[in-house]
Amino acid sequence: MELSVLLLLALLTGLLLLLARGHLKAYGCLPPGPRPLPFLGNLLQMDRSGLLKSFLRFQEKYGDVFTVYLGPRPVVMLCGIKAIREALVDQAETFSGRGKIAILEAVFQEYGVVFANGERWKTLRRFSLATMRDFGMGKWSMEKRIQEEAQCLVEELRKTQGALQDPTLFFHSMTTNVICSIVCGKRFGYRDPELLRLLDLFYQSFALISSFSSQVFELFHSFLKYFPGTHRQVYKNLQEITRFIDRVVEKHRETLDPSSPRDFIDAYLIRMDKEKADPRSEFHQRNLIYTALSLIFAGTETTSTTLRYGFLLLLKYPHITERIHKEIDQVIGPHRLPSLDDRAKMPYTDAVIHEIQRFGDLLPIGVPHMVTKDTSFRGYIIPKGTEVFPILHSALNDPHYFEKPEVFNPDRFLDANGALKKNEAFIPFSVGKRSCLGEGIARMELFLFFITILQNFSVASPVAPEDIDLTPRESGVGKVPPVYQISFLAHGGC
Ligand code: HEM
């Protein structure tokens, strides 16, 4: 080898070692973890099947709190309900920062309620919660809206006359309609081409965000962002949705009556106008568009994916479906509309929904957090700005709280008297100041949609229950169930 090449190699090695020392020193008080390489971080120690598997393996070796270098950036992982609560609840303010999901960074750029930080986030979260409450969240009118949407779905499912369907579009349409009616005052017909396009964009994007290539992008985004790949498609999809929201906002502006806001967008425009003289106001167009996008995306994909996993599980375990049908027959009967008051009288159905959420494990590695200041935690010092992943999967699958967590068993949520039994490790909506803003709506939707569908239909699969495969299609930021076919047969006949 030529001398100049040797010199260059020696120089590079020296530089890497120097950088590594500086790098490690800067984060010297972080919790332990696998030893990182400069730039590559812990790439070489990662499991090929993805981030979650790698994190669970590290948990076995380093305990519930450890540090993993995703490429060059250190991320503190919190496993198990105790560590997650100690951080997100006991030190709620400090752990309330939002970390990044690399593949979404170029789109949101810290605007909108999900990805904002600091005062911007506090303002948007407070406003979103209050306004969604004004437009029905947590109130009787929200229940009515969901009941009506469930009836629209029943009508659509009747039209299928028991033919096999991929249920994705039905569930998506229903959940989008609920959130869009709050945000934009609009519900779509199930065959509206605008709706179908939106839903396709949501569905494709969630699958792409949860794909293996997105996990690789998470590690090396500062380099990979210059090349073609999944991130460009996600960007394109979300930009198209953003343009749709832009048009909706413009229409709202043209028809706004400040004395009578119709929905979330109207309420925001009124506030924007009130604060237009304040240059520091967070009520500007960009935050409006990205908050609306966050609410519609988070509000559609999550509940719909849970329903999709839920019905796949019901096909796999027909004896469980039968018990729900019995409970519906006893408590509601075939004619009356299901209501939220029924929940207290239907502990078995409620337990099944809990178990679907636990087993479905929608956001296995949680949504990234970030510490807002230098933080002392379990004897370590986590520097301000360090990202923190609450690994929700580790709580939902902790064998100390859920015996044989790999088994789908709704009875684990029932006590000896058949009443619903709470479990502190059941945290599909996360905990603390950043916990899911739509939990109230989601819980209403899951209950009312499940029982309204099962009040009207029995379900059947072309695949024998024992052959139904529950393996997710994608498992990354989100866990996406496999594609499957189902038929909805008029209950008691067809
Ligand atoms: C089954 C349904 C759902 C599940 C499992 C779920 C779960 C979650 C989780 C785990 C987070 C992250 C919490 C954290 O950062 O620690 C989150 C955040 C969020 N969710 Fe949901 N969610 C669901 C439905 C919804 C719905 C229907 C909406 C809209 C109405 C919604 C809106 C949001 C928003 C806006 C945030 C960000 C909150 C913030 O950063 O302050 N979610 N959700």
TrEMBL record:
It catalyses: an organic molecule + reduced [NADPH--hemoprotein reductase] + O2 = an alcohol + oxidized [NADPH--hemoprotein reductase] + H2O + H(+). Residues 1-22 form the signal peptide. It is a peripheral membrane protein. GO terms for cellular component: endoplasmic reticulum membrane. Keywords: Endoplasmic reticulum, Heme, Iron, Membrane, Metal-binding, Microsome, Monooxygenase, Oxidoreductase, Signal. GO terms for molecular function: arachidonate epoxygenase activity; heme binding; iron ion binding; oxidoreductase activity, acting on paired donors, with incorporation or reduction of molecular oxygen, reduced flavin or flavoprotein as one donor, and incorporation of one atom of oxygen. It is found in: Endoplasmic reticulum membrane; Microsome membrane. Its cofactor is heme. It is an enzyme of class 1 (oxidoreductase). One of its GO terms (biological process) is epoxygenase P450 pathway. Its EC number is 1.14.14.1. Heme binds at residue 436. Belongs to the cytochrome P450 family. This is Cytochrome P450. It comes from Pusa sibirica. The lineage of its organism: Eukaryota, Metazoa, Chordata, Craniata, Vertebrata.
